[in-house]
Structure formats: C-alpha cells, structure tokens
Write a structure and sequence with these properties.
single chain; alpha+beta; 5-stranded mixed beta sheet; 3 helices; Ribosomal_bS16; ribosomal protein; ribonucleoprotein; structural constituent of ribosome
Length: about 140
C-alpha cells in the first residue's frame, strides 16, 4: 500500500481549512485516511503559531514507514524540522524559449539597422553642412 502524507480540504466555500493526513495514495483527496497528524489554516497570519499544527513524532513514524509527503506537506515538515527538503534545480526554467530568442534576435537586428541608418543620415547632414560652410 503506497502511503502519502497530504492535505485533506475541509471548511466551507472560500474559507479553506486543511487536515494533514496519512492516507493511501489511491483514496480520494477528502476521503478515507489512516491518521490525522496535524492541520493547516491558510487564513491565519503567516507568523501565527496555530497556522500549522503538526505532530512531528507521528510524522517521523510515518516517514520511516515509507509515506511520501506531497510538496506542500514537505515544506511544512521542513519548517517543523522533521525532514529536510531539497531545493529543486531547474536552470532552464528561466531561459526563454526558441521563438522568444528568435524574436529577440530580429528585434536586435532591426534596432541595429535603424541605428546604422540614423548614423548615415546624420553623417550625410554633417557632411552637407561642412560643404556649405566651406563654400
């Protein structure tokens, strides 16, 4: 049986309240669970101590039994000092896509051509003024 430590939503519409539960991965999100090990109230202030209540001892027990926490619960476990969460590494995420790179190159080429044309016209105007001044 694949166990997961996840959030089970409660509360009413627009007023969420979550239980941190250990459940079979195949059971419904808000359905049957094995044990409730804490709760999470996102409506409370971030520095409120009642925002996240977690039984660290039971969480360690279930982690040792092979339960896999979801991303959000892994953050909570890291804050509680139960389990260290590894930072994700995806350096290509911030890199622009191929089409965006092509558009940027086209823009750069147009800008360069425009600047060269402006420079040529200013040089021609300056040359004409110099000729007019020498005559």
């Amino acid at each position: 049986m694949a166990l997961s430590i996840r959030l089970s939503r409660g509360g009413s519409k627009k007023r969420p309240y979550y239980r941190i539960v250990v459940a079979d991965a195949r059971s419904p999100r808000d359905g049957r669970f094995i044990e409730k090990i804490g709760n999470y109230n996102p409506l409370l202030a971030k520095d409120d101590e009642k925002r996240i209540v977690l039984d660290a001892e039971r969480a360690k027990h279930w982690l040792s039994n092979g339960a896999q926490p979801t991303d959000r619960v892994a953050r909570f476990l890291d804050l509680a000092g139960v389990r260290e969460r590894t930072a994700r590494n995806n350096p290509k995420k911030a890199e622009p896509g191929e089409k965006a790179k092509e558009r940027a190159e086209e823009r750069a080429e147009k800008l360069k051509a425009q600047q060269e044309a402006e420079q040529e016209t200013t040089e021609a105007v300056v040359a004409a003024e110099v000729e007019a001044a020498t005559e």
